[in-house]
């Protein structure tokens, strides 16, 4: 994407609609995630009003790679970690800003073993 550091201590978080959670950035993040993880990627989301459109844009970006997306729907964040590992996905993504205000949202990326990406892998995304 750019040399801008996107990942904070727990994924990418921002006001929904503002960089890095605007449409072009989300598509680019999806493409980078698809290129990094490849294979089958499980994506879940919380109930924030912005989560469905973030999912659609993320899926658009991932679909520009050889990776495929499985929509887990509305699930808690730990479910993505568990399901990613248990069902052999190459990675998982959770769309949520956890306890942050409802206007915010976020993208948290998990490796195939259900752990969050390490700093080196996040830097590649």
Rg value: 13 Å
Q: Could you name the CATH topology?
A: Alpha-D-Glucose-1,6-Bisphosphate, Chain A, domain 3
The percentage of residues in β strands lies in: 15-25%
Number of structural units classed as domains:
1
CATH class: Alpha Beta
Distance from N terminus to C terminus (CA atoms, Å) equals: 8 Å
Q: What is the H/E order? A: EHEHEHEEH
* SS summary, helix count: 4
Structure keywords:
125 residues; Alpha-D-Glucose-1,6-Bisphosphate, Chain A, domain 3; alpha/beta; single chain; 5 strands; globular; five-stranded mixed sheet
Can you tell me about this structure?
With 125 residues, the chain is α/β, with parallel strands linked by helices. The protein has a single domain (12-117), classed as Alpha-D-Glucose-1,6-Bisphosphate, Chain A, domain 3 (3-Layer(aba) Sandwich). Helices cover 34% and strands 24% of the residues. The protein has four helices and five strands. It has a five-stranded mixed β-sheet with strand order 1-5-4-2-3, with helices on both faces. β2, α2 and β3 (68-74) form a beta-alpha-beta unit. α1 (23-37) crosses α2. The chain is globular. The N and C termini lie close together (8 Å). The model has no long low-confidence stretch (mean pLDDT 91).
């Amino acid at each position: 994407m750019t040399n801008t550091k996107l990942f904070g201590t727990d994924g990418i978080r921002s006001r929904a609609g503002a960089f890095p959670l605007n449409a072009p950035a989300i598509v680019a993040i999806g493409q980078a995630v698809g290129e990094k993880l490849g294979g089958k990627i499980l994506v879940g989301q919380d109930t924030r009003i912005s989560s469905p459109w973030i999912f659609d844009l993320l899926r658009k970006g991932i679909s520009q790679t050889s990776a495929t997306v499985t929509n887990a729907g509305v699930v808690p964040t730990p479910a993505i970690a568990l399901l990613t590992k248990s069902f052999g996905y190459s990675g998982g993504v959770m769309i949520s800003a956890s306890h942050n205000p409802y206007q915010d949202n976020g993208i948290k990326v998990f490796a195939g073993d259900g752990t969050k990406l390490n700093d080196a892998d996040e830097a590649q995304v």
